[in-house]
Fold this protein.
Amino acid sequence: MTFDPLVPDTGHDVHALYRDLRASCPVVHSGRYRGFWALFRYGDVVRVLTESQRFITSVQNVVPKVAFTGRRPPLHLDPPEHTIYRRVLNPLLRAGRIDALEGRVRAHAVEHLRPLIARGHCDLGTEFAGGYPILAFAEFLNVDRRVIDQVRDIGGIYVESLRDFNDDAVRAASLDLYEVARELIADRMANPLDPADDPTSALLVARHEGQPLPPDMVLGMIRQVLVVGIIAPTVVIGSMVVHLATDRALQDELRATPALIPDAVEELLRLYSPYRGFARTATEPVTLSGTTIPAGEPIAMVFTSANRDETVFDCPDEFRLGRAERHIAFGLGPHQCPGIPFARMELRVALEELLDRTSGFELAGPVDMTRWPEYGATSVPVRISARAANTFTDACDSEDCAR
């Protein structure tokens, strides 16, 4: 059996395909993207994620391959080399800093939602999910709108070129992002910020064995960070909106009991895991679910399938609050997403504001889906009704919250 990742996604049809593959051909080869293997079962994906000496990222970490313009820590490096850069980044994602950012992130959600809700109809995919995460991530990076607008425009070209398998366009867009990273580094060298609160400043002052980090690695890491926090939240929020727009009872439950929203975010991440193209390369022949994969060939981990594996999750296509099973939307092992605390806050705030400011919303047209290597909704037209009173964000309607 072969697998074609370029077959268009149409709503839940892709999950029917993945269910069949988990049952009949859980490790399958595809001739697309110069050839790769794809894993669809939870157990196989977890094994690859956690056996970091056998399955490495330094050869190829995404299908299709995109690393044409230099190594970008930490994802492009294997332990222990990658750990040097994770140690710099991890403190910037501590709970105290995320808490301090929440008010400004919430203000961006309010800024985007208020005119859309007042209009009564909008595209929550392009008009909310397409903008709010970009400004939220700008707060994490301490960059102004000019910089983040550059990243948005170039990043959009980069992602579309990746989906179209246009290597030349991917390379050109990546080089443009490197130039943005150079300008940011030059600005921080001239005007340093507190390294406890600024990723670029933290990398510039970091030391390993008494020496500064190599300049090309600092540049590569800033280039990586510029886009990594933008792509996934956009499609995840779109998918969350689609689910809620088709489940009015769940909308009402979460409005009535907002304390359930963090748990709802986790279940929606499981159901609509945005990544299916993250990859590893085996250093030796390996057998997974009865299929032997030769050394040196790229292996895509289809999180979107693994998180609906019926051998792990009871009734996996159903939304259930309070599941005990652990989803892997953020990965596992040494390369688990370092931005989990920020992402959870960002998604929670998005749902809190959307639900608190509306009395209801429903789909008003066809939903557009992204293409491999991500999974999720990009265009979500809705009819939307405003709610008279807000619980979460009265304070965020003031100038103080927006600053």
Notes: Residues 398-403 have pLDDT under 50 and may be disordered. The first helix runs from residue 13 to 24. Residues 13-402 form a domain with the Cytochrome p450 fold (CATH 1.10.630.10).
